[in-house]
């Protein structure tokens, strides 16, 4: 175990750093669809499937399914429609990403923007 002094920049990406991967929670996915093939398909649509959370595999947290996906640092969708057999499901996505930190610029009048 390590101890680190608190810093307001802890667990933040610096401006210009890209997110390579992120955990995403899939809300509204019926338990009958909690199979690796469906979770992989959702992951591929989100940017590229990487892994399934162990708690999701063991069905320990039934409020959501959680997967790790590749990201390109751009917009992350909040909704995803996916078709399974003859039904279309509208799934809410909850992204677990690091905050981005951007330095304020100071103009000549002394105010920050």
UniProtKB/TrEMBL annotation:
Source species: Vitis vinifera
Question: What name goes with this protein?
Answer: DUF4283 domain-containing protein
Q: Which PANTHER family match?
A: DUF4283 DOMAIN PROTEIN (PTHR34427), DUF4283 DOMAIN-CONTAINING PROTEIN (PTHR34427:SF5)
